[in-house]
Design a protein that fits this description.
By secondary structure, the chain is of the alpha/beta class. Helix content is 40%, strand content 15%. It has ten helices and 13 strands.
Length: 335
């Protein structure tokens, strides 16, 4: 299976590349020219140029190339030349607050970038299966009594990120229905694990706690809204789900990838503190609070279980241990 991952230098992209390679797939990834993907040198170690970059290392067999999905001509040329069996489209601005700063930019990347790929497939590579990686942010603020959210829930995004992802999600459905593109959609709920940027809440907690544990910071953790409840999964489970969607999902359909239950963000923080065995002070940073923050969101994964044989396997406690261990190593290496 010849697989192309757009946004393959990102958090989930690198985990997906590793998983696909382990499945025997021939993998290529794209990254934005402003990024520097973590790749090993000929000896299998990280090169000097990227040795200080945190993250999961891409396998040596993976082909790496720069691509800006907003450049329509470049996208067409790549798809016409590569003719991959399957595309996993992860390239996007993924940090939700970034969309509130520049709505036009996030629409250009997350929505128009997706449409550029769909157009290129329709014109040059009709046999390619397109897996659009959407987001639970498209559901936005659930209507009362609708939890857990299934795939037929009304899309009510309350963030610019959610709006852009919802538009691309619907565009993918349109192309599968009207333009004969073999498109299928995955809607992952929040996922965490080694290599995630510390701009994201749980990874930020783990990094701050690691710095405290190693004596690099005062015993104080800055946080946002700890009362919000979210449906968290391990990134390894989620990327396994992407491949299951790609291999077994029905054209035009959408599949929730989630644990099926929610946990309070503050509870995860307390679990990380327990893992680290440290005493800390917790302080709310107003800059970390979202203008609109939905109190509780969790999904229904029964369709994914029924139709593609996917369900999460990794216990969240284990995920927190691996995330904390990752940040301990990263902080120590950066000294």
């Amino acid at each position: 299976m010849r697989a192309l991952i757009t946004g393959g230098a990102g958090f989930a992209g690198k985990h997906l590349a590793q998983y696909l390679v382990s499945c025997g797939d021939d993998v290529a990834v794209t990254y934005h020219a402003n990024e520097k993907p973590v790749v090993p040198d000929a000896s299998g170690k990280r090169s000097t140029a990227v040795s200080q970059q945190p993250g999961v290392v891409l396998p040596t067999t993976v082909q790496v190339m720069a691509l800006d999905v907003t450049h329509r001509k470049a996208v067409e040329e790549l798809i016409a030349l590569a003719q991959p069996d399957i595309i996993y489209h992860l390239a996007a601005i993924t940090f939700v607050p970034a969309g509130e700063i520049d709505l036009q930019k996030i629409l250009e990347v997350n929505t128009q970038g997706t449409i550029n790929l769909l157009d290129a497939i329709a014109k040059h590579s009709r046999s390619t299966r397109f897996v659009y990686v959407s987001s639970s942010e498209v559901y936005g603020e659930p209507r009362p009594g609708t939890l857990p959210l299934n795939e037929s829930a009304v899309l009510r995004p309350v963030s610019a990120y959610g709006i852009a992802k919802a538009a691309a999600d619907l565009a993918s459905f349109k192309y599968s229905a009207a333009d004969s593109v073999d498109a299928v959609r995955a809607r992952p709920f929040p996922h965490i694990g080694p290599g995630q940027d510390s701009a994201f809440a749980i990874s930020s907690f783990a990094r701050q706690i690691a710095e405290i544990k190693l004596g690099r910071a005062e015993p104080k953790i800055m946080v946002g809204n700890l009362e919000a409840k979210r449906d968290f999964s391990d990134v390894s489970d989620i990327v396994r789900g992407y491949r299951e969607v790609g291999m077994n999902g029905k054209k035009g359909e959408v599949y929730n990838l989630c644990s099926g239950s929610s946990i309070q963000v503050g509870d995860l923080l307390q679990k990380l503190i327990k893992v680290a065995e440290v005493e800390v002070e917790i302080e709310v940073d107003p800059a970390r609070l979202r203008p609109i923050d939905v109190p509780d969101v969790y999904g229904d994964n029964s369709k994914a279980q029924r139709e593609i044989g996917w369900k999460p396997r990794i216990d969240l406690e284990g995920t927190l241990h691996s995330l904390f261990a990752y940040w301990l190593e990263t902080v120590e290496r950066a000294a």
